[in-house]
């Protein structure tokens, strides 16, 4: 993990975002621990608030709608969430209704992300690709489709392989667990070939599609200043997961 440049004590997260919206602690089986979700919120939104105001946002693999909801609360004009598990889309719709979000501001689509992105000529200002890049190996297809949406910013949160070279650590994952890849056109016998890029691999992937990394979120500072329940975000603490903001080059 890159060392923090922030002053000790400056990254304490006191009022956790999801403590105000606790339904999100119940609607997912996937690491919905309060400390982890609230620190992720700080890394994804606290450090990137300026890119969301008034923007149209795409949430790739939107799960139970947690980050779509946070994007609207951060000032986004609208959000489209695409999620391959229909029960999670149902949960997202129910939660948004529960918290009285105006239906004009959001749309959730239950579909394979590759299929849904190919369906319409989408336009978005900000694309969030959170917790998804390590559940696929179809990077050229994903990045080409993101680029075609014409966003100015791409926010990524992903597990990374710990290697100094530009590479992707391939693996095979089971489609059973809720956090994993869903069956798609290329899965075989309930399994999907997927990969975990290294940091340099990630930079190569986004760079090939005209995105420049503007900054990595300060996980070192968040970990230093929020030591409680550190096990809940240990992959960030160990440098095995990163959050970054990329800007499209003209
Ligand atoms: C680890 S969870 C991440 C959830 C959320 N984005 C986050 O960062 O907290 C991965 C999500 O990707 C979804 N998913 C996996 N493969 C997908 C695909 N091909 N199309 C759409 N959703 C997919 C899963 O159903 C799951 O909800």
What does it look like?
- 29% of the residues lie in helices and 22% in strands.
- The chain has helices at residues 34-46, 66-73, 86-98, 113-119, 139-148, 199-208, 219-225, 234-237; strands spanning 56-60, 78-83, 106-110, 126-130, 153-159, 168-174, 191-197, 211-216, 241-248.
- The strands form two sheets. A seven-stranded mixed β-sheet has the order 3-2-1-4-5-9-8, sandwiched between helices. A two-stranded antiparallel sheet has the order 6-7.
- It has one domain (17-248): Vaccinia Virus protein VP39 (Rossmann fold).
- The structure holds S-adenosylmethionine.
- S-adenosylmethionine is lined by residues 30, 61, 63, 66-67, 82-85, 88, 112-113, 130-132, 135, 157, 179, 181-182, 184.
Spell out the blueprint of helices and strands.
Elements (H helix, E strand, L loop, with lengths): L33 H13 L9 E5 L5 H8 L4 E6 L2 H13 L7 E5 L2 H7 L6 E5 L8 H10 L4 E7 L8 E7 L16 E7 L1 H10 L2 E6 L2 H7 L8 H4 L3 E8 L2
Parallel strand pairs: 1-2, 1-4, 2-3, 4-5
Antiparallel strand pairs: 5-9, 6-7, 8-9
S-adenosylmethionine (SAM) binds next to helix 2 and strand 2.
């Amino acid at each position: 993990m890159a060392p923090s440049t922030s002053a000790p004590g400056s990254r304490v997260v006191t009022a956790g975002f999801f403590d105000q919206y606790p339904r999100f602690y119940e609607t997912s089986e996937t690491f919905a621990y309060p400390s982890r979700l609230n620190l992720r919120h700080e890394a994804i939104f606290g450090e990137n608030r300026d890119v969301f105001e008034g923007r149209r946002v795409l949430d790739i693999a939107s799960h139970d709608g947690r980050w779509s909801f946070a994007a609207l609360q951060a000032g986004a004009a609208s959000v489209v969430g695409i999620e391959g598990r229909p029960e999670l889309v149902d949960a997202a719709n129910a939660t948004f209704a529960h918290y009285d979000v105006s239906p004009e501001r959001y749309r959730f689509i239950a579909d394979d992300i590759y299929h849904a992105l190919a369906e319409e000529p989408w336009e978005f200002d900000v694309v969030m690709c959170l917790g998804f890049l390590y559940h696929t190996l179809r990077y050229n297809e994903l990045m080409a489709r993101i680029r075609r949406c014409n966003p100015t910013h791409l926010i990524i949160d992903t597990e990374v392989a710990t290697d100094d070279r530009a590479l992707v650590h391939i693996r095979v994952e089971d489609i059973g667990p809720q956090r994993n890849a869903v069956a798609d056109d290329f899965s075989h016998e309930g399994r999907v070939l997927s990969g975990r890029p290294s940091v340099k691999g990630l930079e190569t992937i986004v760079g090939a599609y005209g995105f420049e990394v503007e900054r990595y979120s300060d996980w070192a500072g968040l970990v230093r200043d929020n030591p409680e329940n550190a096990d809940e975000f240990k992959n960030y603490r160990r440098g095995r997961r990163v959050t970054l903001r990329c800007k499209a080059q003209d």
